[in-house]
Automatic annotation (TrEMBL):
Pfam families: AAA_21. InterPro entries: ATPase_AAA_core, Bact_Antivir_Def_Nuclease, P-loop_NTPase. This is ATPase AAA-type core domain-containing protein. Residues 26-315 form the ATPase AAA-type core domain. It comes from the Bacteria.
Length: 443
């Protein structure tokens, strides 16, 4: 599966956004509060495999309850079972190479389903499949959305290390002969072990409860005793992966996140769309680089689409320039998702030499180390004045210093950041007149 178009109206910090997507590996970069995580949340909700995600008034842009939330997603590379005529085959649309939607998948248009989530001010969500140019809509169930293969590596990685309803481990064993009996036998064995235990403090508490219940006239129990609740194949939350005798829940966050991701990946045999918020969370730089390398390899094989946010310079340096999408919110609710233009000069070198700049709001380019030192001194002086006046320092404004490394590179780097929408200023001296033309072209 592959997400090709995302449209959002009136959701959290986004009043409007429309993003045409043509990449399988996407690193969302930009300053804090540019709505990167909100984009992932929107994707997760419109493609949600759950039938009852919870919404609140805070999910409406500006808490304005006069309008509905609307999120639309166009998904291609659809599973065969989902596009049967008995399923949603008659609801297929087309998406053009530039991301434009058309009513039918004809000519150069790629077959897709357009899924729309609408949330009313009464907090009632509705999922439908719609087609451009038509008012007709057909409901899409949670089980059908599950076939779109979306999952998100979130803040609770331990869930997929357990066998339980909806977990990736349960997906790996679903329908496998003998798997259900192993889980049920484990439950039943554990129940028998508790029943057969020698009298202990739990039994004393049960007997006290029995006497009190009798006095209240609740019931005439024969024998209250402690026991585990009867389990089922889908309620095995206490059954989890162990490394030898060590439960994986006791390992470090980075290891748990990566193991959870690997299990979810394996559970999606027909391909999947993975969303990862702050991919670097809990990972050392060398493990982050390995994760990105592996995800890129899987994406290039056409097996995955990965959409992730990052605030890590290591991630920026590891990814290619054409993997990155700069996200920017204009302060009035409009979110813009900009791919790195193909015609930027030496953009890969710019990003790898100054990855921090992509994570800020404003860029100051110094011609070389002397100019950068001068700018750093000015910023420290201005920060002291601002802090004494009760105003925020330059760091809170997202200002990032970039060393231009001399010659024509400063103007080249300044132009690259300016083209990507970053307010950019360049400081050069006048000791090398050979760069005059390059400097003039940067104005």
């Amino acid at each position: 599966m592959m997400l090709r178009l995302l449209r959002i109206e009136h959701f959290r910090g986004i009043e409007s956004a429309e993003w045409a997507i043509n990449q399988r590996l996407i690193g969302l970069v930009g300053a804090g509060d540019s709505t990167k995580t909100t984009l992932l949340d929107a994707i997760g909700l419109v493609l949600s495999p759950n039938y009852n995600p919870q919404f609140t008034d805070a999910d409406f842009y500006g808490l304005d309850l006069s309008r509905d939330i609307v999120i639309e997603a166009a998904v291609t590379d659809l599973p065969d079972n989902l596009v049967k005529e008995s399923q949603l085959g008659k609801e297929r649309s087309g998406v053009m190479p530039d991301g434009t939607l058309v009513h039918d998948p004809v000519d150069e248009a790629e077959e897709c389903l357009v899924v729309r989530l609408t949330v009313t001010p009464e907090l009632d969500p509705t999922w439908e499949v719609v087609r451009p140019g038509s008012d007709d809509a057909r409901p899409i169930s949670a089980s059908q959305r599950r076939q779109l293969g979306f999952f998100r590596l979130g803040e609770r990685p331990d869930y997929h290390l357990r066998w339980g309803r909806g977990s990736a481990l349960s997906g790996l064993t679903e329908g496998v002969e003998g798997a259900s009996s192993v889980i049920l036998d484990a439950h039943r064995g554990a129940r028998r072990a508790v029943f057969d235990a020698d009298p202990n403090a739990l039994h004393d508490a049960a007997m006290a409860a029995q006497r009190s219940a009798r006095d209240f006239g609740a019931a005439q129990f024969g024998q209250l005793r402690p026991g585990l609740a009867p389990g089922s194949v889908t309620s095995a939350h206490t059954l989890m992966l162990h490394d030898g005798d060590v439960p994986l829940s006791s390992l470090g966050l980075g290891t748990r996140r990566l193991t959870s991701l690997s299990i979810q990946d394996q559970a999606m045999a027909d391909g999947s769309i993975i969303a990862i918020d702050e991919v670097e969370h809990g990972l050392e730089p060398h493990r982050l680089a390995q994760v990105l390398y592996h995800l890129k390899k899987r994406a290039l094989d056409g097996q995955l689409q990965v959409i992730m946010t990052t605030h890590s310079p290591t991630a920026v340096k590891t990814l290619n320039a054409d993997d990155l999408v700069v996200v920017r919110s204009d302060g009035a609710g409009r979110t813009d998702c900009q791919n790195v233009p193909d015609d930027l000069d030496n953009v890969q070198g710019t990003f790898r030499s100054a990855p921090d700049a992509l994570l800020g709001r404003r860029v100051l380019v110094g011609e070389g180390a002397t100019e950068v030192g001068f700018l750093r001194g000015l910023i420290r002086h201005w920060d002291a004045e601002r802090i004494s006046d009760g105003r925020p320092p330059a760091a809170s404004l997202g200002t990032v210093l970039v060393n231009g490394q001399g010659s024509t590179q400063p103007s080249q780097r300044a132009q690259n950041f300016q083209r990507l929408g970053y307010p950019t200023c360049m400081l050069v001296d006048n000791d090398d007149r050979r760069i005059d033309r390059s400097v003039e072209s940067s104005e």
